[in-house]
Specification:
Elements lengths: L5 E8 L2 E8 L2 E3 L33 E4 L2 E11 L4 E7 L5 E5 L3
Antiparallel strand pairs: 1-2, 2-3, 4-5, 5-6, 6-7
Length: about 100
């Protein structure tokens, strides 16, 4: 079951986001979302500058190194610190893991 809510992010503390939660035009400050998954529709995402991409946009993209095709991004792994790309290598059909901060 999905419930549409509106969040207004007001700050952060440690690895947590602090937000006001609106549901049917009423504000709730006692809803605990810790450990819950929240989803956003793509149409509601912030418009990015040229050359910026959302990490999910990398799925199924080809990966090149100096004009040579290495493989394709097949998965994005998140360990709450950084995202890691799983690449299906073309030359030997093996998986390669690349930290997205590199």
């Amino acid at each position: 079951m999905y419930i549409k809510i509106n969040l207004e992010i007001t700050g952060s503390l440690k690895n947590r986001i602090i937000a006001d939660i609106y549901f049917e035009d009423e504000i709730y400050d006692d809803i605990i979302l810790q450990g819950k998954e929240l989803y956003i529709q793509k149409k509601d995402l912030k418009k990015l500058e040229d050359g910026e991409y959302y990490i999910l946009d990398l799925l199924e993209c080809n990966v090149y190194k100096e004009k040579e095709l290495i493989g394709k991004v097949t998965d994005i792994l998140n360990n709450n610190i950084t995202e890691t790309l799983e690449i299906d290598r073309k030359r030997d059909n093996r998986k390669k893991i690349i930290n997205s901060n590199n």
